[in-house]
């Protein structure tokens, strides 16, 4: 059965979780806001041609080293296209949308909380990245990623770096 899978021309798929750090802090929204977003999500796709994969992905964010009095949320999803440049190198583009919310806790007791909304809204997203893959097994690899988070909300623009664990067939 393993020999048939290696010689087959049938399509395959891949997918797995990712962890991504956004380098730009949220102090652009308010000088009292500290911390940078961390996004946890997943991505998956199938082979469309011998060099191109197509699928979907998305994630949700929270703050790394954020202010104690801050509430932050980020979520997005969309279509993913990936072009295979070499056995260990590829270029990826996620096109989609999402939303975010940032607010400060201005007063808090055991029974009540007063929150000041700083900013919130939806966005359209382009998220290009390049990925270097390290093969772990024939069915698993670890990808180191570098990209740019480019929504139509300028204050959320950020250089990104991350790690992606992928499971499934690596070749069509």
Describe, in plain words, how this protein is organized in 3D.
- There is one protein chain.
- With about 170 residues, this protein is mostly beta strands.
- It has one helix and eight strands, in the order H-E-E-E-E-E-E-E-E.
- An eight-stranded antiparallel β-barrel has the order 1-2-3-4-5-6-7-8.
- Strand 4 (about 70-85) and strand 5 form a beta hairpin.
- The two termini are about 15 Å apart.
H/E series: HEEEEEEEE
User: How far apart, in Å, are the first and last alpha carbons?
Assistant: 17 Å
Beta-strand level of the residues, as a percent range? over 45%
Number of strands: 8
Mean pLDDT: 88
Contiguous runs where pLDDT drops below 50 for at least 5 residues: 1-9
Alpha-beta content class: mainly beta
Report Rg.
19 Å
- Give the helix tally: 1
Question: For the report, how would you describe the main beta sheet?
Answer: 8 strands, antiparallel, barrel
Strand order of the largest sheet: 1-2-3-4-5-6-7-8
Shape: elongated
**Helix-residue proportion:** under 10%
